[in-house]
Task: structure prediction
Amino acid sequence: ELAMTRLHAGGKFEETAYQASGGLHGVGASAVNALSSHMRVIVKRDKKYWTQEYKIGHPLSPVKPISTAEIKKLLPLLPSSFFLLPSGTVSSFIPDPSIFKITTKWNQNIISEFFLERSYLLAKFSTHLVDLEHDAERHFYFEGGIKSLVAKLNQNKKALHEVIFISGSVKDEKMQVGVEVALQYTDVYSETIESYANVIKTVDGGTHLTGFRMGLSKAFKDYMLKNGYLKNNAKGSEELTGEDLREGLTAVIFVKMSSNEIQFESQTKAKLNNPEAQSAVYQIVREKLDEYLEEHPQEGRKITEKVLLAARAR
Result:
C-alpha cells in the first residue's frame, strides 16, 4: 500500500534493494495509480497471495489474502505459469478517461519498442506482449544482448568484421559502474551510436558517450602509431579527427550503476551526468580495445584502412 499510494516510497534509495534500475524516485507506480479509475495489485509471497484494489490512487480496502480460484476468476487470461513462480506481481489498471480526455487507447508501437529495447539490453531475458484488442502477439528474446542489437542496426549494411563486445566494471569509493559496449564498422559513411544507462535510453547521450568516444580515439590512435599507420609526432597524430574514427561505426553503450547515485540532466532522463561513468567507460573501452586489436590484427587492419580512407576523403 505504501509503494502504490505514496510518492518517494520506492526501494531505490538504499543500495541493498537494487544494483541497477530504471526507476529512481518512487514515483512511477503511485503516479499510474493516481491516474487510474481502477487498479489492482496481486502479489505472491511466501506461498501466499495478497491483493489490494484502488480508485484514483485511494485504497478500496486494506491489503488482504486472495485464493488462486479468486485470481483465476478475476483474471481469466493470466498465464497459468504465474502460479508456478516462487514469487511474482500482477498489476492491472484502467487509465482514467476524465484525465486522459483525448484517448485511453494504448499505442502498441510504443509498448513494443519499450519491450524490444529491454530485451536487447538484458541478454536472455524474455518479454511477451499480447494485444487482445487486435488479436496480436509479440515475443522478444535475444541471446546476445547488445551484440544482437548492433547486428540488427547493421542488417542492411556490409559489416567489415564481427561485432566486438567489451564489458567490465570499475569501482571507486563512491560506486561501482558496470560497462557493456558492442561495436562494428560498416561500409557506410554515417555513424549510428545508441547509449543507455540502467535500461533508460539516453537520447541526448551524456558522460558515458563522451567516455566511449575518448576511449575509442585513444585506443585506435595508439594502435595506428604503434603499427606505423601514422607518423609518431604531433603532426601525424593530428591527421585523424573523431569524425574519421567514427565514420561507418555502429555502437551501443550500456552502463549500470546504483540507483541512489545515478544522475540525469532532467526527469526525462535523456542525458547522463555522472562523471564516474565517463572515466569508467573510457578506461574499459581503451583497455579492452587495446587487447582486441593486438589479438585480431586482420580486423585491426580493416578498421584502420576504413579510418584512413575517411581521413583522406576529408
In short: The two ends are 61 Å apart (CA to CA). The chain has a mean pLDDT of 90.
